[in-house]
Design goal:
Layout lengths: L4 E6 L3 H10 L5 E7 L2 H17 L6 E6 L5 H11 L3 E4 L14 H8 L7 H18 L4 E4 L3 H9 L7 E2 L3 H16 L6 E6 L2 H10 L8 E6 L2 E2 L6 H6 L14 H17 L3 E6 L7 E7 L2 E4 L7 H14 L2 E4 L5 E3 L1 H11 L5 E2 L4 H39 L1
The chain binds NADP nicotinamide-adenine-dinucleotide phosphate.
């Protein structure tokens, strides 16, 4: 049996490259980075290859390939040719951090919309990739980074949901373990967490230290025993953005990459593990998940049913700006969230049937580009007026 495991990373942006780089530092595997720019992807792959060699990982296969996800047939050909065992999707038309590159006041206005209204920018590239997976006849386990909490349930209707997501709630778990261990007076690796939380809550926990108007589920185990009642949970969560704060922004995507690897490594190494992941089996939001022989099983806190865990996540979904994801994949957006994009970008979509997603993504991209120009022109105008005022004052 050929025991070289093959992992394809599709999407050569910040997160994709981080994960690809880490995956190359492990034996018995071949990793391939797929981007859409030949030169940039070749350079990124070579950088990883040289770093792995420098650190003594000489038996790792490292390669690259090029495709544009808009070309499903070409992507399918790439997938069929490489035949990955595991496929990691890290492509997006507009990652979460892009609005943070706007001037501060514009960023803050858009930030108030939360994440839901931007869904098409994550959903469409994943949908294209999954169409390619099907066209290639691939049986790879597909793991996706792009807003799995909402992308997977929407795509499930078309049979296109990746198997599991990464990050979001998982990014908070190490901080919770460390904070709980400090309170219990033990080592972090003696503490296990069972967290049920939507992207909205995950995002809020590290910034505000609570779940806000949304529900969440959390239980703590110490050496296998439930010790949740022994810990002041609200106090612990409040300390996450305080004493237990961590680097955020793009540099903070090191945490997301680690969360991705917590799912990918067991799949690559064919070992069982307990992880946290959004969007397992097309479900809304995030859950503790057992990986068992390459399959996934929900592992909610003791005493919590699957329905209760889902209801917790639906409460987070609404706060994220999505009222409902219907069984046919139609997404209904919250008026308050969408109202922000309507006001700022002139983009207004209260209900999105799945076949409309591609057109909606194109529309957001165009309106966002125009918005960026308007904001920049407005700021340039403000700066010119300020310079004129200052030079006028000097003359006086
Ligand atoms: N789950 C989590 O905890 C978590 C945390 C962080 C990020 N994320 C998500 O992960 C995704 C990637 O994030 P990132 O920060 O790495 O974003 P990024 O740096 O912007 O990378 C996105 C990549 O997608 C590629 N792409 C866009 N359109 C494409 C197309 N038509 N064909 C092929 N590739 C295409 C881009 O290619 P080019 O380089 O050619 O433009 C880019 O390399 C986003 O959805 C982000 O929101 C999730």
């Amino acid at each position: 049996m050929n025991d070289i495991r093959k992992i394809m990373v599709l999407g050569a942006g910040d997160l994709g490259r981080r994960v690809f780089h880490e995956l190359a530092h492990g034996g018995g595997r071949h990793v391939q980075l797929v981007g859409r720019d030949e030169d940039a992807t070749l350079r990124a792959a070579n950088l990883t290859r040289y770093c792995a060699l420098q650190r003594g990982y000489a038996d790792v296969g490292v390669s690259h390939a090029v495709t544009d996800l808009a070309d499903v047939a070409r992507t399918a050909e790439r997938i069929a040719r490489f035949a990955p065992d595991v496929l990691f999707l890290a492509a997006s038309y507009q990652s979460w951090w892009v609005i943070s590159t706007l001037p501060k006041d514009a960023f803050e206005r858009l930030y108030a919309a939360n994440y839901g209204p931007w869904l098409p920018m994550h959903l469409v590239p994943v949908m294209k990739a999954m169409e390619a997976v099907r066209m290639a006849g691939s049986d790879a386990t597909v793991v996706n980074a792009a807003y799995p909490d909402a992308v997977h349930p929407a795509l499930a209707a078309a049979g296109l949901a990746p198997h599991i997501g990464i990050g979001n709630l998982a990014n908070n778990v190490p901080g919770i373990r460390v904070a709980a261990a400090d309170e219990l007076g033990c080592a972090p690796d003696e503490v296990e967490v069972r967290l049920v939380a939507h992207h909205y809550v995950s995002h809020r926990l590290s910034r505000r230290g609570d779940s806000g108007p949304a529900a969440m589920g959390l239980s703590l185990l110490w050496e296998g025993r439930d010790v949740t009642a022994k810990v002041d949970i609200a106090g612990l969560l409040r300390r996450l953005p305080g004493r237990y704060r961590r680097t955020g922004g793009l540099a903070g995507q090191a945490m997301t990459a680690a969360s991705a690897l917590s799912v990918l490594e067991p799949l690559v190494e064919r070992r069982d593990a307990v992880v946290h992941a959004p969007g397992p089996m097309g479900m809304i939001g995030g859950y503790p998940v057992a990986i068992e022989s390459g399959r996934f099983r929900l592992l909610p806190p003791d005493g919590m049913t699957r329905e209760e865990a889902l209801a917790i996540n639906v409460s987070g979904q609404v706060q994220d700006g999505i009222t409902e994801i219907r069984a046919d994949g139609t997404v209904v957006f919250e008026d308050a969230s969408m109202g922000v994009l309507a006001e700022e970008l002139g983009y207004d979509c209260r209900e999105m049937p799945l076949p409309d997603a591609e057109g909606r993504a194109r529309e957001i991209a165009e309106r966002f580009a125009a918005y960026r120009e308007r904001v920049a022109a407005g700021n340039a105008g403000k700066a010119t007026r300020l310079i004129l005022r200052i030079s006028g004052a000097r003359r006086r």
